[in-house]
Write a structure and sequence with these properties.
4-stranded antiparallel sheet; about 120 residues
Length: about 120
């Protein structure tokens, strides 16, 4: 099973930027859709963005135009560039690996990285 390591979170003022990274071990990365989710205190985990193996992207309405997801298959890494951050973006951000059906690979989650945006 793939192991995912999230990094890049921190404390930033509103309007600032952060870039999250998630490195995956193993061979599942190249054939998997990769996503970023977040969970704020007292709220359910929600999808922020995902990127397919072909590079197609999806963004939640709340982050469109501010966040950008990308992937580097040579480095088994997915990124989330977050600009114009708002206090409402404060959450623990989790990387997700979603392999295609019909393979022996299992979905995996990173350990999470805290993003705190101060007003």
């Amino acid at each position: 099973q793939a192991q995912l390591v999230d990094s890049g979170g921190g404390l930033v003022q509103a309007g600032g930027s952060l870039r999250l990274s998630c490195r995956a071990s193993g061979s599942a990365f190249a054939i998997s859709t990769m996503g970023w989710y977040r969970q704020a205190p007292g709220k359910q985990r929600e999808l922020v963005a995902h990127i397919s193996t072909a590079g197609s992207t999806y963004y939640a309405d709340s982050v469109k135009g501010r966040f950008a997801i990308s992937r580097d298959n040579a480095k088994n890494t997915v990124y989330l560039q977050m600009n114009s951050l708002k206090p409402d973006d404060t959450a623990v951000y989790y990387c997700n690996l979603d392999p295609p059906p019909g393979t022996d690979y299992e979905a995996a989650w990173g350990q999470g990285t805290q993003v705190t945006v101060s007003s």
